[in-house]
Amino acid sequence: MICFGFFLTLSYLCIMNLKDQRIAVLLSGGVDSSVVLYELVRQGLRPDCFYIKIGPEEEEEWDCSSEEDLEMATAVSHKYGCKLEIIDCHQEYWDQVTAYTMEKVRAGLTPNPDVMCNRLIKFGAFDEKRGHEYDLIATGHYAQTEIDEEGRKWLTTSPDPVKDQTDFLAQIYDWQLRKALFPIGHMMKEEVRVIAEREHLVNAKRKDSQGICFLGKINYNDYIRRYLGEKPGDVLELETGKRIGQHKGLWFHTIGQRHGLGFGGGPWFVVKKDMRQNILYVSKGYDPQTAYKQEFRIHDLHLLTAQIDTSTICFKIRHTPEFHRAKVETIGDGVYQILSDTPIHGVAPGQFCVLYDEAHHRCYGSGEITV
């Protein structure tokens, strides 16, 4: 057991040593990354700032806030006398993240593009283009890191349970974690807002972005429809086989979905997808038992730092403040069985199951749900 004071001392030493490091700050135009820059400048540092351009494939057809994002990032970087460079990762995003998303969605799975954006773009393509010239890459993620007695760097949770973003970072590589710096990860969102308003940052009152990192106001289903089109099929009640209606494509639905189904006589929950016969199965009720699972499997378990004792863990399967306790059993060939202490709503193949220690402090990594 390592005492808290040990990690606190290491964190302090890390701050003291930042003056010896070349730091790149990823400015998004939002308040979080802007306060990151303020915090580093406050320590006497002058990092270089970068705005990663990913944007939509054809900007004239999409309602995107990227122009406003860039204006905000430019204003903040100029306020603190730091240069800002635009890094175009547009092609890499569409070749990698969009390809990943469409492949999973077409197979009836529920992917998380933002998770892969962190691995492939923010800490991936950016590093290949410019980040490799820097010792550290600072972002506005709500996450922390700590060093153990063996010198290993761990991803740890933010004290803000609502904003904690370790689940979005659980697929980055170990070398990416070693370069990651999260200057506001120890703060609550309210603290960040207070700092931004006190420092008169141009985006102090700007709302947080929602949904996939580049879509802005674009509807996710429109994004899917653009690439996969529609494929109508029957909607059946799981328990009775009764036809409820018709869907426009299984890829527009995810397990556990209740809102936006548009079927009368409900409420209805999506509980199963039959990709071969193109059938969407639903169950009726406000909280049907068929919407829950207590056991499921994951594969391709990606660990951030080291092998772990997976006998008892905490986990989450979506971006929520809640953690669930479970035991993990090794099935073989990289497949693991998650045995949750309590039934979990909306377990969908393709989602990432993110693993934590029993105190949900250290984030171990994540694996993709298969069943």
Tell me the β content. Answer: 25-35%
Question: In terms of per-residue confidence, which ranges show pLDDT below 50 for 5 or more consecutive residues?
Answer: 1-16
Q: Briefly note the structural class of the backbone.
A: alpha/beta
The shape, in one word, is globular
Question: Brief description of this entry?
Answer:
Helix content is 27%, strand content 27%. With 371 residues, the protein is an alpha/beta fold.
Keywords:
five-stranded parallel β-sheet; 17 strands; disordered N terminus; 371 residues
How is this structure best described in words?
- The protein is of the alpha/beta class and 371 residues long.
- 27% of the residues lie in helices and 27% in strands.
- The chain contains 9 helices and 17 strands.
- It has helices at 4-16, 31-42, 66-79, 90-106, 113-129, 166-169, 174-179, 189-198, 220-228, and strands at residues 23-26, 48-53, 84-88, 136-138, 144-147, 153-156, 180-181, 233-237, 243-247, 268-274, 279-284, 292-303, 312-316, 324-332, 335-345, 352-356, 362-369.
- It has a 6-stranded antiparallel beta barrel. The chain has a 5-stranded parallel sheet with strand order 3-2-1-4-7, with helices on both faces. The chain has a 4-stranded mixed sheet with strand order 9-8-11-10, with no helix packed on it.
- The radius of gyration is 22 Å and the shape is globular.
- The two termini are 35 Å apart.
- Mean pLDDT is 89; it is low at 1-16.
